[in-house]
């Protein structure tokens, strides 16, 4: 009986975590470059139940009852690295990346001396003329240096080369992830490697579009459908838990009563 409590509770907890993930996806449906998360739900290992029987002819006879599943859990969430739609903004400081060979590429930014990576190309110029993210993190060039410009009237070529008044200022530091699932997702649309090891240069495996931003990859209709499914699964486990609770109440208050 108690195993049923734990199995139903684990199902509720897994669906609650999935709902939280889907809610976060929906909240970022208009965030440039956002990669929606996907849940990986796994079952706990099954248990093989046995019963030891005692009889007049044989003592300690083992009889197999069968296997028992002990519930599920949400193992991890993984970003879905697919190309988002490019949306025109007509802002010179807005940049969008396109993956040209299937491998995801990223802008490189400086976060307190550590290289982080983002697909959100909604950039701006700070008071010192540095090209920064919306969160104020400096964007890095191919040599790992911060990019300083005189005004927002600059041009970015497809290969990431930045020109100002016809003069080449810097080239964007575009990195490529050979195994994107190994990246660790942080806030503000940032990613980092597990050991803060810099990602390799993307070479020619990208294209930059100026005056565009990459849209979020969240599918609103599919996310709503998955959220309703998660709600129903949560409610089903909740009803099972309530049924177990009533059974335990009956066992304690009625079956286990000793008449004096």
From TrEMBL:
Domain of life: Bacteria
GO-annotated cellular components: bacterial-type flagellum basal body
Segments forming domain Flagellar basal-body/hook protein C-terminal: 209-253
PANTHER family: FLAGELLAR BASAL-BODY ROD PROTEIN FLGG (PTHR30435:SF19), FLAGELLAR PROTEIN (PTHR30435)
Protein's recorded name: Flagellar hook-basal body protein
All residue ranges annotated as the Flagellar basal body rod protein N-terminal domain in the record: 5-35
Cellular localisation: Bacterial flagellum basal body
Domain Flagellar hook protein FlgE/F/G-like D1, chain residue ranges per copy: 106-162
InterPro entries assigned to the protein according to its UniProt record, in alphabetical order: Flag_bb_rod_N, Flagellar_basal_body_rod_CS, Flagellar_FlgE/F/G, Flg_bb/hook_C_dom, FlgE/F/G-like, LlgE_F_G-like_D1
Family indicated by similarity: Belongs to the flagella basal body rod proteins family.
Species the sequence originates in: Lederbergia citrea
Keywords: Bacterial flagellum, Cell projection, Cilium, Flagellum
One GO BP: bacterial-type flagellum-dependent swarming motility
